C-alpha cells in the first residue's frame, strides 16, 4: 500500500518507519524543513531504541521517504495518517486540535482517488467526524472515508509495541474502509495480533479510557504506598500480592514519584474536560490528576525531610530526569517539579541522565551535569533516584557512600533493598517501604 504519515514526532515517525518495515511504501510529511532535512540525512530526532536502524534499512530499500510536500504525498496515497501533536490547550486542559484540523483542510485539497484518512493522534471523541465534516466541506467531490486508529505506543518500547501489539483498534464507518485498514494491518493479522473493528467514537474513547485507567492504576498504587509507609507494609509485596489476581495484573503497579510523559498528563486532562463538557464528569480522573500533581510536591518534601529540612549550600545528586527510562523525553517529568524546588531551596544540584541532558540543559537551569553517578555523588549530602535507568540499577553502594560527604539516599523508584542500602552506610528512604 501507499501510505502517507503526516507528522514526524514520536507517533508519526515510529508508525511510518514500522509501516515501511511491514512492506508498505511510506512517505512521512512534516512542515519543518529542518526536521525533514535531518530525516533525509538519516538523523533520527528522537531517542527510541531500534528506530534508527529500522529507518535506515527501509530508506535504503526505497520504502520510506520524507518530504515537505503534503500535496504530492497525499495525492499518491491509499491512506493518509494524521499523526500531528494534540497538546493540552493552555488554560482549559482541552486537547488542542488546531494541527489536526489544519492537516484535514490541507489533505482535502490534495486528495486524488479514493483515500482513507486515518487519525492516529490521540483526539477527543467526535474528532474523526469533525475531520470528515471539514474535508467534505473543503472538497465536496472528494471520494474518501475516515478511520480512527489510536496508538498504544510506550516511549522506549514503541517499536516493540507497534510490532507486537496487544491489539489494534480501528474505528470505521463502512466495509470499504475496513478493507483498506485490513490490508494496511495484514502483516499484524498474520501474527494473529487482534484487530478490534468498532465505530469511530468507541475507537476514540478506547484510547482515552485505556490511558486514563493506566494513570489511575499508577496513582492508586502510589496512594497505597503512602499508607504502607504509615502502617509498616511493603508496597512491593503488596503490589506483587495484588497483581497475582489476573483481574488486576502485575503491570503498572510500581509506586514512584508520579506519572509523567507526553500522554498520561495530557490525556487525563482531556478526558476530564470531555466529561465536564458533556455533563458527565469523570470524578475519579479529576482526582487522579490532582493527586499526581500533588505527589511530585510530596516527593520534594520527602527529600527535604531526608536532608533535615535544610538543603541550602548542600550538594544534592539527582539520578535521572527523563519521565521514564529509555527515552530522552522530559515532558511532565517529576524532575521538572522536584529539581527546581531543590535549587530554589539553595541546594547545589548535580544531575546525571543517560539521555536527558539534551532537553534537560534547557528545562533545568542552574544545575551541574555529571557524566556518571559517582561523579555526581562526590561530596554530596544526598542522592536522589528519580528515573530507573538500567545504568542506576547496580551501583556499588559502598563506593557511592564513600565518596559522599553525608551518605543519604532517596530511592524514589525502589531500585535498592533498604537493608543492603543501610548496610552500605546509607541513611535510606524509598517509596512505600
Ligand atoms: C503511555 C501508555 O503506556 C501508552 O500505551 C500510550 O500509548 C502512551 O502513554 P508512555 O507515556 O510512553 O506510554 O509511558 P509509560 O511506560 O506508560 O509510563 C508513563 C508514566 O507512568 C511514566 O512516568 C512512568 O514512570 C510511570 N509509571 C509507569 C509508574 O510510575 N509506575 C508504573 O508501574 C508504570
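Sequence proposed for the structure above (433 residues):
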Amino acid at each position: 500500500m501507499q501510505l502517507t504519515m503526516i507528522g514526524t514526532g514520536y507517533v508519526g515517525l515510529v508508525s511510518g518507519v514500522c509501516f515501511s518495515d511491514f512492506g508498505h511504501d511510506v512517505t512521512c510529511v512534516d512542515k519543518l524543513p529542518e526536521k525533514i532535512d535531518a530525516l533525509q540525512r538519516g538523523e533520527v530526532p528522537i531517542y527510541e531504541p531500534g528506530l534508527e536502524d529500522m529507518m535506515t534499512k527501509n530508506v535504503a530499500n526505497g520504502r520510506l521517504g520524507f518530504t515537505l510536500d503534503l500535496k504530492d504525498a497525499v495525492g499518491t496515497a491509499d491512506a493518509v495518517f494524521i499523526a500531528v501533536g494534540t497538546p493540552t490547550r493552555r488554560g482549559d486542559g482541552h486537547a488542542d486540535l488546531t494541527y489536526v484540523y489544519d492537516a484535514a483542510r490541507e489533505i482535502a485539497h490534495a486528495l486524488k482517488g479514493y483515500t482513507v484518512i486515518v487519525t492516529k493522534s490521540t483526539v477527543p471523541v467526535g474528532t474523526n467526524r469533525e475531520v470528515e465534516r471539514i474535508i467534505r466541506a473543503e472538497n465536496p467531490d472528494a471520494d474518501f472515508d475516515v478511520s480512527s486508529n489510536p496508538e498504544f505506543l510506550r516511549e522506549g518500547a514503541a517499536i516493540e509495541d507497534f510490532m507486537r501489539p496487544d491489539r489494534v483498534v480501528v474505528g470505521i464507518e463502512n466495509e470499504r474502509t475496513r478493507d483498506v485498514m485490513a490490508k494496511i494491518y495484514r502483516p499484524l493479522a498474520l501474527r494473529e495480533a487482534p484487530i478490534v473493528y468498532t465505530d469511530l467514537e468507541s475507537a476514540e474513547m478506547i484510547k482515552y479510557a485505556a490511558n486514563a485507567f493506566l494513570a489511575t492504576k499508577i496513582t492508586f498504587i502510589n496512594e497505597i504506598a503512602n499508607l504502607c509507609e504509615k502502617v509498616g507494609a511493603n508496597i512491593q509485596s503488596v503490589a506483587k500480592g495484588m497483581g497475582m489476581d489476573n483481574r488486576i495484573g502485575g503491570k503498572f503497579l510500581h509506586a514512584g514519584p508520579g506519572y509523567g510523559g507526553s500522554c498520561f498528563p495530557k490525556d487525563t486532562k482531556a478526558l476530564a474536560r470531555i466529561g465536564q463538557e458533556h455533563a458527565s464528569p469523570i470524578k475519579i480522573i479529576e482526582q487522579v490528576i490532582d493527586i499526581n500533581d500533588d505527589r511530585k510536591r510530596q516527593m520534594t518534601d520527602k527529600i527535604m525531610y531526608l536532608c533535615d529540612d535544610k538543603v541550602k549550600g548542600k550538594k544534592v545528586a539527582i539520578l535521572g530526569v527523563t519521565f521514564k527510562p529509555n527515552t530522552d523525553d522530559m515532558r511532565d517529568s517529576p524532575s521538572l517539579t522536584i529539581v527546581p524546588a531543590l535549587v530554589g531551596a539553595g541546594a547545589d544540584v548535580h544531575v546525571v541522565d543517560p539521555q536527558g541532558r539534551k532537553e534537560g540543559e534547557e528545562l533545568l537551569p542552574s544545575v551541574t551535569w555529571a557524566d556518571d553517578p559517582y561523579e555526581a555523588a562526590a561530596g554530596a549530602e544526598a542522592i536522589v533516584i528519580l528515573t530507573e535507568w538500567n545504568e542506576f540499577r547496580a551501583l556499588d553502594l559502598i563506593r557511592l557512600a564513600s565518596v559522599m560527604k553525608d551518605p543519604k539516599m532517596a530511592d524514589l523508584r525502589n531500585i535498592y533493598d533498604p537493608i543492603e542500602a543501610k548496610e552500605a552506610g546509607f541513611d535510606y528512604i524509598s517509596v512505600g517501604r
